[in-house]
Design goal:
By secondary structure, the protein is of the alpha+beta class. It has helices at 16-26, 67-73, 90-99, 168-177; strands at 5-12, 31-36, 41-48, 52-59, 79-86, 103-113, 119-128, 136-141, 157-165, 184-186, 191-198, 201-204. Strands 2-3-4-1-5-8-7-6 form an eight-stranded mixed sheet.
């Protein structure tokens, strides 16, 4: 079984201004990523050491709102919403996820255009673990597209990443069944948590 590796962390922010303010306070440099056509969102990116990055997902003022972008706009502050893992064979992964009892959406093609005009293309698989209220994890294959982490200098590092859940053993068992090496800890409510280091500061998401 091919193991996945962390590609990026997705942070939802109610506006681009709140995303930039959060990044500045964290000591991270962000750059425009691009718009997601038809999805009502756009993103800002911050590269981290190790070939991973942060995606700050915000509503796109230049697109009609969608149910998802409206939900994000109602957040009180930026929050760590999901972990995205890279996998080179999404078709096989989707079968493994279904065999483990997960609901699966994809693989599906996606694209966006960077501000410099370069078109990025990738494939995604979304899944719903057979564990109630599991933190969101999805999967990506960039194919031949340049990886977004290479667009700018790394401004920080990821020290730790873990999921919190009321039933950590059940969630760990599911992750292990599909080849995911992810830390799961008991928590009062389902969530992703991460520890970053940037500009000499320790940041807990």
């Amino acid at each position: 079984m091919i193991r996945s590796k962390l590609d990026h962390l997705m942070i939802e922010a109610p506006s681009a201004a709140s995303a930039r303010a959060w990044a500045e306070a964290a000591g991270l440099q962000v750059r425009p990523g691009g718009s997601h056509p038809g999805r009502g969102t756009c993103n800002l990116l911050a590269s981290l050491h190790g070939g991973i990055y942060l995606e700050l997902l915000t509503p796109d003022a230049d697109q009609p709102p969608t149910a998802n972008s409206l939900r994000i706009s109602r957040l009180e502050r930026p929050r760590l919403a999901a972990a995205c893992l890279a996998h080179p064979d999404l078709d096989s992964l989707a079968r493994d996820l279904r065999n483990a009892g997960a609901g699966v959406d994809g693989p599906a093609e996606h694209a966006r255009q960077r501000p410099d005009g370069l078109r990025l293309c990738w494939r995604l698989v979304f899944q719903q673990a057979p564990v109630p209220d599991a933190p969101m994890v999805f999967f990506i294959d960039w194919g031949d597209t340049p990886h977004p982490s290479a667009d700018g200098p790394p401004g920080g590092g990821l020290r730790a990443l873990w999921a919190e859940h009321g039933e950590p053993a059940a969630l760990s068992a599911f992750f292990g069944a599909v080849g995911l090496d992810l830390d799961v800890r008991r928590g009062a409510s389902p969530a992703w948590r991460a520890e970053l280091e940037a500009a000499g500061r320790r940041i807990i998401l």
